[in-house]
Write a structure and sequence with these properties.
Largest sheet: 4 strands, antiparallel
Helix content: 55-70%
Shape: globular
Distance between the termini: 46 Å
Number of helices: 24
Strand content: 5-15%
Radius of gyration: 24 Å
Number of strands: 7
Structural class: alpha+beta
């Protein structure tokens, strides 16, 4: 199965690789010579945006938390509308290669450049981490190999695609892989839906239960809470006592499971809740803002705000519009992206809903990212399940590879641009860009890739979004104001992200703000940027009027 997946990905990558892969100058590395068509560029942007979180994590969150999670794809599509409306064409007309270049050009300050570059690096690392984690889950599910082998596989693949030619060498590959990913969700989605209708299975909104005898292995020590008594076959340590495969009656309430214990639940038993993941029960799963998280209404607003505004601050997406020929082409590209993402996001909700029926044990283990990978064999055992698993796994690895390539190019361009640039500096920066999230992958306490990806959105929404919006539309922005806003918004968002990655979950308002800080950090970023700019109005750059004219006067060519 691994061989087939690798072969399909290789063919897709070769189909998309540009004829000219060796860069001649900086515009090849960072902007693909500014000659990518809107349709081709939109496919590449969509392929880059559909990451591990979108491909696997979205279905897993719907499985666990239900209707609240549907705001994420809505925010993703709406974020591109905001991007199109506010910054796409003006940013392209600036002529910069990266966000750091734009900040330095707009404000004439190396300090601002360095502050923006730091944000780009943090966002890139937060965005790469779930790609590695998703690759590990995928390879483990389809082959049984250790999770770390998936991390290494993605690093090697991304290095092979990025190092030769930067953005130019990956644009075609990302465009082709978008269509591969779309096929990998549309075909299984339609088949799964047809089979479910034929089976006339139960309503997915009911409390999750085991449809067949199911063995669950505890990956870590955890507490589980049973909502109904069950007779469970136990091998390992449960409630401080070791069992060797004998049946044990477990009463309603909390039980302690030690790492490595194997519990076999009978068909019809309710899926226990664990302290690693608290899924919603019954029809609450289908009801918005019904609980299951810290302050669910505030958390939903916060994550929606971060996705809506953070999209324009994602460096690997914004840099794509520099590869268009002009502002009008950039606008057409953004419009097509909205349609492509809307088509894709119809399906993760379906997979999460079917996961409630066919893979409920994932609610106990917390490995909800594996939902889509496990559905083919649960719904269609045998050869049909094998073929669909190959298709889904191929799409998953395409998601990891295409997104990781875009992030590495954007972050490497920002790092190398601060130290003189050049092909050798770009390649060294690419190695550094991949090394740090690879280390973080060994330390993270967060099992869901979508929860990790929202950390990147929160930092982007709190730091680079205010800089772009005010830099494009407000002529009174000053270098001091820009630095103050980036630090005031991006600093707390980064701290919250690290606390989430390294420290696990917390309760109450503090826990909600650590998980989804945008509700606090986005206003902080805007307020600090505006306030300090007004206090330092005498330092508005002298070339501001010329810069504003350049960004807002349409070009003569398309």
């Amino acid at each position: 199965m691994i061989t087939v997946v690798a072969l399909v990905l290789l063919i897709a990558s070769l189909l998309g690789v540009s004829v000219r892969t060796r860069p001649a100058h900086a515009s090849d590395l960072y902007a693909a010579s500014r000659e990518v068509s809107p349709w081709w560029n939109a496919s590449a942007i969509s392929g880059e945006y559909i990451s591990a979180a979108a491909f696997l994590g979205m279905a897993g969150l719907v499985l666990a938390y239900g209707a609240d999670m549907l705001w994420l794809p809505i925010g993703a599509a709406a974020g591109h509308v905001v991007l199109l409306t506010l910054v796409t064409a003006p940013l392209r007309r600036s002529g910069a290669y990266t966000l750091s270049d734009f900040a330095a050009w707009r404000l004439g300050s190396r300090t601002v450049r360095h502050a923006v570059s730091a944000c780009v690096v943090v966002i890139g690392w937060f965005y790469l981490l779930p790609q590695f984690q998703g690759a590990g889950v995928t390879l483990s599910v389809i082959s049984g190999l250790p999770v770390w082998t998936g991390w290494v596989a993605v690093v090697l693949a991304v290095g092979a695609m990025v190092l030769p030619g930067g953005l130019r060498s990956i644009t075609g590959m990302q465009a082709v892989q978008f269509w591969l990913k779309l096929i990998a969700v549309v075909v299984p989605g339609l088949i799964f839906l047809a089979v479910w209708r034929l089976q006339n299975d139960a309503d997915a909104a009911r409390a999750p239960y085991f449809h067949r005898p199911t063995t669950v292995t505890a990956g870590t020590s955890a507490q589980m809470r049973l909502t109904a008594p069950a007779v469970v076959t136990v091998r390992g340590v449960l409630d401080g006592r070791r069992y060797d495969g004998e049946p044990v009656r477990l009463d309603t309430g909390t039980h302690r499971v030690r790492s490595g214990a194997r519990l076999r639940f009978p068909a019809g038993a309710a899926v226990p809740h664990t302290d690693r993941l608290t899924p919603l029960r019954g029809d609450r799963w289908a009801t918005p803002f019904s609980g299951g998280r810290n302050h669910p209404l505030a958390a939903t607003y916060s994550v929606l705000l971060s996705v809506l505004l953070g999209t324009m601050g994602l460096p690997h997406l914004v840099v794509r519009f520099y590869s268009n020929a002009g502002g009008r082409a950039a606008r057409r590209t953004a419009k097509i992206v909205v349609l492509m993402l809307a088509a894709f996001y119809l399906f993760p909700a379906l997979f999460g809903t079917l996961g409630r029926l066919y893979t409920p044990e994932l609610l106990m283990t917390g490995e909800t990212d594996a939902t889509l990978l496990m559905l083919p064999h649960r719904i269609l055992p045998g050869l049909a399940g094998d073929l669909l698993t190959i298709l889904v796994a191929t799409g998953a690895f395409a998601a990891f590879a295409s997104t990781s390539c875009g992030v590495v190019v954007a972050v490497s361009g920002s790092i190398s641009g601060n130290f003189g640039g050049g092909a050798s500096g770009f390649r060294l920066s690419a190695v550094i860009t991949m090394a740090v999230p690879l280390l973080l992958a060994t330390l993270t306490c967060v099992p869901q890739s979508m929860a990790l990806i929202t950390l990147a959105f929160a930092v982007a929404a709190s730091s680079l979004c205010p800089l772009l919006v005010l830099g494009v539309w407000w002529s009174r922005l000053t270098p001091a104001g820009a630095v103050a806003g980036v630090v005031a918004g991006g600093g707390p968002a980064t701290a919250a992200g690290l606390a989430r990655i390294l420290g696990g979950q917390r309760a109450g308002w503090l826990g909600m703000l650590i998980e989804q800080p945008a509700l606090l950090t986005v206003p902080l970023g805007f307020a600090a940027m505006i306030g300090v700019s007004l206090l330092t109005r005498a330092t508005v750059p002298a070339h501001t009027d010329r810069a504003m004219v350049r960004m807002h006067v349409p070009e003569d060519h398309p």
